[in-house]
Write a structure and sequence with these properties.
512 residues, alpha/beta, Metallo-beta-lactamase, Chain A, 3 domains, 17 helices, 23 strands
Amino acid sequence: MKKIISVFFNLIFFVNIIYADISITPYGAAETVSGSCFLLEGINSSIIVDCGLFMPEGIGNTEYKNRHIDSKLIKAKALCLTHAHLDHSGKIPLLINSGFKGKIYSTNATKEIALELFKCRNGFDLIKRNWFWSLSQQKKAKHKKSFIVAHWRPECKNKIKSLKYSKDTSYLDDLEKQESAKFLLCKNCCQLETQEIEEYFVTVEYGLENSLSENLTVKFINAGHIPGSASLMFTLDNKKVLFSGDLGSGGYSRFNGMFEVPERADLIFMEATYGSSIKKSSQQYEVFRKDLIKAVSNNKIVWIPALALNRTQKILYELKLMQEEGLLSKELPIYSISPSANAITALYQKELSSSQSQKDWFLENVYQEGSILPKEAKLQMLRNYDKQMILLSSSGDMDRGKSYQLTPKMLLNRNVFVMLVNYVSPLSNAGLALKGKVLHDGTRSIASVKQYDVFSDHADFDMLQKWLQKQNKNTKIYIVHSSKQHLRDVIDALRKVGWQNVDGVKIGVSVN
């Protein structure tokens, strides 16, 4: 009898070890929208979900958080990447530079887009380097008030005649302070390091189980957010843990269409960036089109500051559709001037024309079109911004890149109509212009400014409920990718429709 009792308790102890010794720790996207990073730890496994940048959201210490990687993450066996947006992928260069040796699992589209973003100088400024540059270029830059190209790869040394080195290992912005100059990351160095990062990637297909360890698998489920985006279903000892990633806007998206509704899980981490709102996107397409047509008929210069990834491409495709429907002249000049946005557009065009494509980036009708570009659209720099045109640039906040450079010229022109097509921070130039407030340079916009929500890549409350439709209403749901203020609204809204077991998470606090 004693032996039976002993075996019984040993069995219970063993089962408790298997099922209890599992934890998920948020390192970002908890009580904040950005910085997506979670560590799933089991007995034999340690897996990262995303490794993204924190964006300025009023949470403080953004710079510090973006420059540091926890040692547990570095030691993880693998990283599963939901999609390529930088708040999910932007710290991958730092993770690898810090010593990560695992594999990076993603869809092919996510891999290709993430690598393109890295080539466009994203993520490499978070790493301390021994920098070097051209002394003669520095002298010219001081006279012309232009950028100096900062190198760190030895392959570039033989190409520079008059070398100058940084005093010690430093971040790029520290180097700028030391030299009292503006530096730009060397594109060749970024491309060489991106080639090394590519070796870490393992591409997977939607809907297939992928073994990560002896008792852990992951399945990528189409999330309909951007090309390649996925929700992740982990199966660990027959228990299922579901990460939504970022969810798309459902049938409102002309690019990606409806996300796949996942099977039932035992634990869910669900994004709710805009989860308490209900959008009427089909109506807003018409509002956007009518306002654009009116501005063009009034000979306005239409400026559309937009996110480089997916938002710029959505706008270009919408302009193409308007041309085909006879709503927009094919003779009207259309310019996209941001290098990073144009690199992504070229990647989209390559996918649409590839005979090797698996055709899982876009909806079928987009592939049938064969292109997302309107007639007369030019992906290039421009010198003269005074003639009538439709102009696209990045960033959407007007705080960085080509949009930042254009802000003084465009916002101080009464003949400019600004169409904001993404969420803008209230304290950004775009946010200030929208409210008629003084800009960062002390001026006030006299251009007309209006915002549109139609091109959002995120699910509203109705879409979240659709995504959850196969789940048990007693299943534990943790809300992620949401600000503190917004988090409570989402939880309350879900509880009102029967989801009682809903809560938030905190950075660094594990869920067991």
